[in-house]
Amino acid sequence: MKQPRYLEEKKRIGLVAPSFGCTTEPYRTRLKTAIDIFKKKGNIVLEGENVWKNDGVCASNSPQERAKEFMDMYEGDADVLFSVGGGELMCEMLPYVDFERIRKLPPKWFVGFSDNTNLTFPLTTLSDVVTVYGPCAGQFFQDAGPTRDTMRLLEGKKDIQGYPLWEKESLATEENPLAQMNLTERKVITPVGFEGPVEGILLGGCLDCLVTLCGTRYDRVQDFVSRQEEGIIWFLEACDLSPLAIRRALFQLREASWFLNAKAFLVGRPLCYDADILGVDRRNAVLDILKPLHVPILMDIDLGHYPPSMPIKCGAKAQVSLEEGNIHIHYFE
């Protein structure tokens, strides 16, 4: 596994739009504000040509143009690439991304969330590059736990822990795009069979995207996990999936042998947090499928579309522990 070099205090930050471009609020104002903040800290910001576009089908541009922007930026002068946003159809650009060429290039950080699983995950499993499943560039409009921790990870920080409160109802609107997080809910992590620290390779992302990749030519997960002697610590969260869809998706991944080398599962808060469909909720959707694997599970960690969501290095070796009810991740070199 190749980990990109840690970054200096002043960075060359590349912005790309492999899914949505920032053309609507609150995303446009947030990204403009984040760019100003990056520059005031002495960073150089390199903007991809699709960042402010909405010229594709539910995307910034065509799949070919989005892939070209990404490849050009990856091979260019940027120290780190941040996606400017999530979206819905990033998967369609994958046929035009040269993962084999990336494997041969010096590794470079890529950071993104949600739909960006379509890059953070295959960059790790196909190109053997460590990535960061973390906040998109626009989230850096605010100085908050996840954005601070992301920069610390990129600069070499080894220890990250969860946050005490989370946001169930956002205050952001088109008229108030720079609203800070509305932290009102106290976090409660549910451990299932988790009795002590677990070590392994972190791997995962948004379940909506992972189940789409399963069975395609970009699915070389069995090969990847079989090569990781330390075993895999899966981190998973869901966006659009209902409890029933989460249950079906986990069943599919389990039966596709993705979880054969699993050491533990870290499961975030899905957007269907309070939903119950025919007796299936967020808990039994996960536990009924994963408990038969007889590995530890942590439910409702600070990961997912209810902020704050902690950044996680995909492909990195780490130790995960539960300390006084809070998740703690220690990264090894």
List the helices and strands and how they pair.
Elements: E1 12-16, H1 27-40, E2 44-47, H2 63-74, E3 80-83, H3 99-104, E4 109-112, H4 117-125, E5 131-133, H5 145-154, E6 159-161, E7 165-166, E8 185-186, E9 190-192, E10 198-206, H6 207-213, H7 221-226, E11 232-237, H8 243-255, E12 262-269, E13 276-277, E14 280-281, H9 282-290, E15 297-304, E16 312-314, E17 317-323, E18 326-331
Parallel strand pairs: 1-2, 1-3, 3-4, 4-5, 10-11, 11-12, 12-15
Antiparallel strand pairs: 5-16, 6-18, 7-8, 9-15, 10-17, 13-14, 17-18
Helix pairs in contact: 6-8, 8-9
Tally of helical runs: 9
Q: Please list the strands of the largest sheet in the order they lie side by side.
A: 6-18-17-10-11-12-15-9
Q: Return Rg in Å.
A: 18 Å
Globally, the shape reads: globular
Strand proportion, as a percent range, falls in 15-25%
Give the structural class: alpha/beta
Proportion of residues in helical segments: 25-40%
* E-strand count: 18
First and last CA, distance: 11 Å
Q: Helix-strand pattern, N to C?
A: EHEHEHEHEHEEEEEHHEHEEEHEEEE
